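Hey, can you fold this one?
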Amino acid sequence: MLSSILILAVAFLSLIALMIIHEFGHFIIAKKFGVRVDEFGIGYPPRMFGKKIGETIYSVNWIPLGAFVKIYGEEGGVDDYRSFTNLKIWQRVLIIIGGVVAFWIAAIILFSIVFATGADLPVQDDQSAQGFTNLHIEVTSVSQNSPASQAGLKIGDVLISGENVKFNKIKDFQDFLKENLGKSVMLTIDRSGKSIETSLTPRANPPAGQGAIGIGLERIGTFIKKYSWYEAPLQGAIYTWQTTINSLKGLWQVISDLFYRKPLPEGSAFAGPLGITVFLANAASYGIGFFIYFVGIISVLVAIFNLFPIPALDGGKLVFLLIEKIKGKPVSVKVEQRITIVFFAILICLYIFITIKYDIPRVTDYFKSSLQR
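Sure. Predicted structure:
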């Protein structure tokens, strides 16, 4: 149990580190353009302690849910040559997207480390397995009160076969379940090198987001090719680009399904910071390489999320700048602040809802699985 708590803590700190990198992106470009930065804080107020270096206070705060940078004049209404509002629009755009770009740079660095050292990595069904060995289908999550949970499946189990059908790809297993909905089937799994057989019954009408038996799966292979120190960054950049494109496609699919009132694609799920922390903790169980890889994935996903045209996010700030460019004058400070506050409140309510409905059960499942390992 103690080790599980420590892994969860490391996962949470990794997420906080990404937030710090994000804010540093805003910070460094603002400094570059000569804008006064009043504070760079880790965590949110109230302040634990801080030190003023030059004109900027560097602080550590009591609420450990991210980081922030306080840029002079960012909230508008300040007519000063060193304020954010005094800059040209293109300069303000660069300051805003600096935080998002920082996420992608972090992802490139993390993926570069993976390509330089080699690691167990996910391999898509339609992806070439060249360069990989020990390909297998591994259980990454088990939903409460699901057929998988009742059958005793655990995170880390490897699916071998069912009713003499070998599972080489995730689709092989999904097709097997579709052919046996409502029927009791026997599965052969590998658990820490030991072969185990268990039976379960795939559901024809499962809860949304759970699938027929309530498990998350990943096709994993050992990436045996290691790139040299000068080749790895290029591979990291390429993989970051591919991950971004694939994430956008997946996001579009989810939005499309929601619009047409279809169930979420299997494997899709809502998650807040707490849920993401659990995902990272589970990734750590596959080794440091997979953990670094997964932090890179999260970095890309959060970068995309920050570009959503929602006030209170970086994408929303870009929308206000676009309106200013079109109108020839900025949006009223009061109007912008009111809109931002409303959307911020909506995001907080959504965060609370996701935490209660999805993330807290994930934490419970994580500790239950940890006790069973």
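The beta strands are 37-53, 56-71, 120-122, 132-142, 158-162, 165-166, 185-191, 194-200, 215-223. Let me know if you want another pass with a different chain boundary.
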